[in-house]
Specification:
The complex is a heterotetramer. Chain A is mainly α. Chain A has 8 helices and no strands. Chain D has one domain. The chains are: A mainly alpha, B mainly alpha, C mainly alpha, D mainly alpha.
């Protein structure tokens, strides 16, 4: 009984925070709502005995990615009132709710009954605790059965490092308009940029 | 009485609990343990403030506060200024709260909360002593015993950055915005070496759970500092950087940015930031003691042996009062000894904070970031690889 | 034990919040944040399915999803900074300038 | 019961404690409004420009590289837990992973992206 009540409480909070992330005017407010949203999602993972993922969700998502979002928002010093017209109008929110509920109803009607087949059915809760805890089981699974994706993940991270350093550096090639054809145009570009960031 | 318990059981049954069944005991134990821990943690800032005034004074051969004391009726107790900082705490609560105009109201009130609750959460994850048994229930002394141990502490402490960032963003003050950005940039760039420094410990003891790691350090020579000395060096440096203390306190240095991110916060909000800083300091010291200095294990005599020795001595005089201390009290006394030992070790590191603060000059900001990115990170990576290869060579 | 369909419905609703954020918000950073929200909805589905089918591959997939989401956020925000430096604004209104 | 029940209890208490502490002086303290008191603190100099002023891109680059190296730390934690069972296979696998990431780190150093001016 209590696990049902707990699930619906957490689900309600998740939906509330997701709505607030999308609807709120000030980007930092929506970033903080995203953090609380991630907190409740990690509570959901903990409820499903995915302990490692609950910790990772807070560590990587709430503690790193959304910190980057807050940094960029403060770096570009976006003010809520500057974003006139950036708010979601009421009809748009209406479309959101109608399409969400509609999709769920249609899926239910078509008899989509969630995941029922395909798993190897070995890793029940008892098997996981017997094998030495959720973290250990996930680690063994990752390093033995997912070797190639694991190595490609590091290539992906390397790619992201190189890309973000090239794009974001102050005098990087892209942002100083060197890519455009005529250098003169580049200077004009520079003029506009200076004007742009009043 | 029976009718009352029956009703109570019926109400509790609705929550899947029953009087004194396992879950109910765990909830009650958690609440009691948290209450005791919260009271203990709330005492730390005033004592530390007194230490921060008294210790540097004695280091510089001048007298720090040494008059203020307590007069209990006829007895005049001279406490060398200790009660002064308790009076400060009370004053902070009754001061007026000045919210600067133009400040972002919602974040101004939320920022201290984001500072305080992570500190308390990770304070609960540290094992303070061996399990005690009360009325037949053995209750572990770490309030949160999750099997992801470190990762839980590492994840929740990465949330503390929001307290700093929001504080700077909310107070409509250029300098605190710059201070908060600098402080949060420093905290995140020292979080990676902190995380990397604990990986060799997991490699050696094979588990993330702090209780098991303390068990693994039963033998004095298996203490973390002997098995992973480089990790201790990195962790020790990152301890100071993570809490914006000592040589790394540029973000709130008086000479640089007045008070950094919490310039505009006064009275109780300032006390909240103060509390979260000192609690974070205590937690990192306790973590360092737990991981590198054997937690609640004392060097050569095991706690249980010491406890049975103490019980042996106490039994003689107590026998006259007809009280015989049974086995349960041995484990409880062993737990008390464990708490004392851990408190001693954590206290030593708190003293290190004060000691280092008054001996090492402050870093410039680029030196600080270079040390983090260009020295600590490669050292951490090399340490992980080194430990792995040594262990692999030994074991496989 | 909560049936897995409830988790699927929750994930769908969160996904649609993210989708609406991507479609209706005019600020690029809000679009990226909504994408993070959609990825979280996918994470919920994966973990719920992995628990229902007693198979750990779902949880391993979530780790890779978080890696991809982090790299995507990093590079995406790098581009947003470059665009802000070039056009001075982050609203999607400046896309009209690309018209030939 | 789920080992995370105490976490929930402590989380609620922590937030309540933070809220009490944060709001304490709002209720307990006096409220005397004077204009100067409410100006942001500028060491006494009256404020010149509003607080919104551009920050250097260095903070942003630090945050990006923090994420990317945090992922590496997470993968290393996963490996550290399963080190004894994986044996040499695991060591080789993760050292390839780390070699690729160290090249990324060397790239960042050579591009001097992290130099604070």
């Amino acid at each position: 009984m209590i696990s049902y009540a707990l699930f619906y409480l957490i689900a309600a909070f998740i939906l509330l925070c997701s709505m607030m992330v999308v609807v709120s005017r000030n980007p930092v407010t929506s970033a903080i709502f995203l953090v609380t949203d991630l907190f409740f999602i990690s509570a959901l993972f903990a409820k499903m005995n995915a302990h490692f993922l609950a910790a990772i969700q807070i560590l990587l998502y709430a503690g790193a990615i959304v910190v980057l979002f807050v940094f960029v928002i403060m770096l570009l010093n976006l003010k809520a009132e500057e974003l006139k017209g950036a708010r979601m109008t009421v009809p748009e929110i209406g479309v959101l709710i109608v399409s969400a509920i509609g999709f769920v109803v249609i899926a239910a009607l078509l008899g989509a009954d969630g995941a029922t087949t395909g798993g190897d059915g070995r890793w029940t809760d008892e098997a996981i605790t017997a094998a030495g805890g959720n973290t250990f089981a996930v680690a063994m699974r990752l390093f033995v059965n997912f070797v190639w994706p694991f190595e490609l993940a590091s290539v992906l991270i390397l790619l992201a490092i190189v890309a973000s350093v090239v794009i974001a550096r102050k005098d990087s090639l892209v942002s100083s308009g060197v890519g455009s054809t005529a250098p003169a145009q580049g200077k004009g570009e520079k003029g506009k940029v200076a004007h742009g960031t009043r | 009485m029976e009718q009352l318990t029956a009703q109570l059981n019926e109400v509790l049954g609705m929550f899947g609990l029953a009087l004194w069944n396992d879950a109910f005991v765990q909830v009650v134990a958690t609440v009691l343990k948290f209450a005791v821990l919260a009271v203990a943690l709330l005492q730390i800032p005033p004592v530390m403030v007194w230490l921060e005034r008294r210790a540097p004074a004695l280091m510089q051969r001048r007298r720090g506060p040494n008059r203020v004391g307590v007069s209990l009726g006829p007895i005049k107790l001279r406490l060398y200024g200790l009660t002064q900082s308790f009076a400060d705490a009370v004053k902070l609560i009754f001061k007026e709260e000045v919210v600067p105009e133009g400040a972002h109201k919602a974040f101004y009130h939320i920022a201290p909360i984001f500072g305080v609750f992570p500190a308390f959460l990770i304070a609960c994850a540290i094992p303070y002593g061996p399990p005690i048994d009360v009325f037949g229930y053995t209750i572990p002394l770490s309030i949160i015993s999750v099997d992801v141990g470190f990762l839980f502490i590492f994840a929740i402490s990465s949330l503390a950055v929001y307290g700093v960032t929001l504080a700077g963003y909310a107070s409509n003050n250029k300098y605190s915005l710059l201070g908060s950005l600098r402080a949060s940039a420093q905290m995140i760039s020292y979080e990676i070496p902190l995380g990397l420094s604990l990986i060799p410990i997991v490699l050696i003891y094979g588990t993330l759970d702090l209780n098991k790691i303390v068990m693994g350090q039963e033998n004095f020579w298996h203490w973390g500092i002997f098995t992973a000395p480089v990790s201790f060096v990195i962790f020790f440096v990152c301890m100071f950087a993570e809490t914006n203390r000592a040589p790394f306190d540029l973000a709130e240095a008086e000479s640089e940015l007045v008070a950094g991110f919490h310039t505009e916060f006064n009275s109780a909000k300032f006390a909240a930031f103060f509390l979260s800083e000192y609690v974070a300091m205590f937690v990192l010291s306790a973590l360092c003691a737990t991981v590198f200095f054997g937690g609640w294990q004392n060097p050569f005599i095991s706690n249980a042996a010491l406890a049975s020795f103490v019980v042996g001595i106490l039994n003689a005089p107590l026998a006259s009062f007809g009280i015989a201390l049974g086995a349960a009290s041995v484990t409880n006394i062993a737990a008390l000894i464990g708490i004392g030992v851990l408190a001693l070790k954590a206290g030593f590191f708190m003293w290190m904070y004060v000691w280092v603060r008054w001996t090492v000059p402050r870093f410039r900001y680029d030196q600080l970031m270079d040390l983090g990115w260009k020295f600590m990170l490669p050292l951490g990576l090399a340490n992980v690889v080194g430990t792995a290869f040594v262990l692999a060579a030994l074991k496989f | 034990m909560v049936p897995v369909e409830h988790y699927m419905v929750l994930a769908t609703l969160v996904f649609f919040c993210g989708l609406a954020g991507v479609m209706f918000r005019k600020n690029l950073i809000m679009v990226l944040m909504s994408i993070e929200l959609m990825l979280n909805a996918v994470n919920i589905v994966f973990v719920a399915a992995s628990r229902e089918l007693a198979d750990l591959d779902g949880q391993v997939m979530v780790i890779f999803i978080i890696t991809v989401a982090a790299c995507e956020a990093a590079v995406g925000l790098a581009m947003v900074i470059a665009l802000f430096r070039k056009y001075g604004t982050v609203n999607t209104g400046f896309l009209r300038m690309l018209r030939g | 019961m789920n080992p995370y029940l105490p976490v929930l209890v402590v989380l609620v208490f922590g937030i309540v404690l933070g809220a009490i502490l944060s709001a304490l002086s709002f209720f307990m303290g006096p409220k005397r409004w004077t204009k100067e008191k409410y100006d942001p603190y500028e060491c006494g100099v009256p404020m010149v420009t509003s607080a919104a002023e551009r920050m250097s891109v260095k903070f942003y680059l630090t945050a990006i590289l923090f994420i990317l190296f945090d992922i590496e730390t997470v993968f290393l934690y996963l490996w550290a837990v399963s080190f004894h069972q994986l044996g040499w296979f695991g060591v080789v696998e993760v050292s390839v992973f780390m070699i690729i990431l160290v090249t990324g780190y060397v790239y960042v150093l050579r591009r001097r992206a992290l130099d604070w001016d």
